[in-house]
Design goal:
By secondary structure, this protein is of the alpha+beta class. It has a domain of 97 residues: Jelly Rolls (Sandwich). The protein is built from eight helices and eight strands. Strands 1-8-3-6 form a four-stranded antiparallel β-sheet. The chain has a four-stranded antiparallel β-sheet with strand order 2-7-4-5. Helix 3 packs across helix 4. The chain starts with a helix and ends with a helix. The mean pLDDT is 91.
């Protein structure tokens, strides 16, 4: 569908650049062409990595984007990144004009929800070793893409435990 390709703009960001801050409303949906990004929650005491994005996938704070309300977390580039982005107003107009785009978004959001629920089970019920092996079975390339301190945060263990798991667990 040609209409979907029109409003996208190519942007590049340096390493460790914040794209969205907690409290801001996400204005863009991104398609990753190059690089790695992470969404994370942060308060005074703790930081927790929620999700990673890398090519070829979407990125952005999707709940803030779709609901147009302030984000509860941050989105930053881990590496230099080249992205395509579409502004919320353009995206919303496309959904209103093309029912198939709205259907596509509903299916995508449903898949994200299913993955989020599975991740909740992993975080709440799996041991550190089970979380580690599940992560590496799902995304074996991730060890080479993302710094280990962020992977440790993502599975809810400290960096020392992650290091021990790296040397202990055989896949």
């Amino acid at each position: 569908m040609a209409a979907l390709s029109l409003p996208w703009e190519e942007v590049t960001y340096k390493r460790k650049q914040l794209l969205t801050r907690a409290g801001d409303t996400e204005r863009y949906l991104y398609m990753v062409q190059e690089g790695v990004q992470r969404a994370f929650y942060q308060d005074e005491d703790k930081e927790a990595t929620l999700v990673f994005s890398y090519a070829p996938s979407f990125s952005g704070v999707i709940d803030s984007f779709l609901l147009q309300q302030p984000s509860e977390y941050f989105l930053e580039t881990i590496t230099q990144s080249k992205l395509l982005r579409i502004h919320y107003n353009d995206f919303h107009s496309l959904m209103l004009q093309h029912r198939s785009i709205e259907t596509w978004i509903r299916v995508a959001v449903t898949q994200v929800l299913a993955g989020t629920l599975q991740r909740q089970i992993e975080l709440m019920a799996y041991s550190a070793e089970e979380k580690f092996t599940t992560l590496l079975h799902r995304s074996p390339q991730i060890l080479n893409l993302i710094p280990h301190k962020y992977l440790a945060s993502y599975i809810g263990v400290d960096p020392a435990t992650f290091s021990k798991l790296l040397s202990k667990v055989r896949l």
